[in-house]
What does this fold into?
Amino acid sequence: MTGHEMTEPAPDPAAGRITADARERLARVADTLIPAGAGLPSASTAGVHTGLLDQVARARPDLVPPLLDALDALGDASDLAAVERLAAEAKQAYEALTLVVAGAYVMSPQVTATLRYAFHETEVVDPRDTLDAVAEGILDQVKARGPLYRVPPDAPSGHGS
It folds into this structure.
């Protein structure tokens, strides 16, 4: 892609292709998609165009080229009508833009704290230690929560009850 030179050193090549200008344009478009409200910050206040963007780029480098395509297609426009035109005219670029913005937004500690969303930490248990892990309560939350499934309509009588 031409015109997307690296403006500052970045540890990840995908993030390095995102110029300062592209980040500023992303901030404006992101605020159109996610404005501040209901006690939550706007997308740019949450940092979707800075460090969170770099995290998304590391996790999904395949999204960087279509994101840059979206920003190129939008130019300096950041209003909702321009974003809707992008959705109609360049679906893949639009999908990358919205996925990056939404994904980065929910990665923001400020957003997750306001939403009271706690990320689940995975605890890996050696299969040989399963009995000890169960005795220590690793499944207590699951037992307390109860089943989270639906019995199919064609299930045998008495199944799942």
Summary: Confidence is low (pLDDT under 50) at residues 1-10. Residues 91-107 form the longest helix (17 residues). The radius of gyration is 22 Å.
